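U., I forgot to send this yesterday:
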Amino acid sequence: MSRTLGTIVNEGYACVVTEDPDGRVHFVADADIDADGANGQNGGPVAYTADDSGTDALANAGMHIVDGRVVCARGWARSIVILGDDNEPKVFPGGMVASMTWYRHPGKALSDPTAYVDAESVPYLAVPRLIVQNTKGVVRGCVARASYKGKTVECVVADLGPSKKIGELSIAAARELGIASSPRIGGTEQPEVLYELWPGVVAAGFVLQPA
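Result:
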């Protein structure tokens, strides 16, 4: 018998997260675009730059520019960007401000921009914390899938969303589904994307990483 893991009320609707007896977790939600991890490691554009010309706005990652420097405007920004010795976002050669995903490739340093999952080239999901807290199987690195208007894309769970954010896809996943993929202006506000994941089942090319 299926069980309800929880209900998230936000963005104008209630999203019920369900777990089936076979372990599949699923819900229907909107789609915000996640740019985290897009650090140019696969030849694509970077999410965040020192002049705010990246694919995503610095403000969306809790940062802004003060006196020509990128600083964290919100405390949570320090959990999603690589920091310098001054505890502010580190600017890499070329002006990149490197962002992190919840999933980090084994054997790579926290300070390595290539350690994280590239939102530009890898279809991934960012899941609500509620799922991680209420399922038995390991979520980070597990198999996932998103479906929208007859299109489906196979994904990995590579990022963790805020407690009140529901549907969230990487740039690459949105692109494959035909959803406007710009982190600045893309996504869909309607709850019309089906999200599915299988905690404990590892996605190809990844490993399961317990929270």
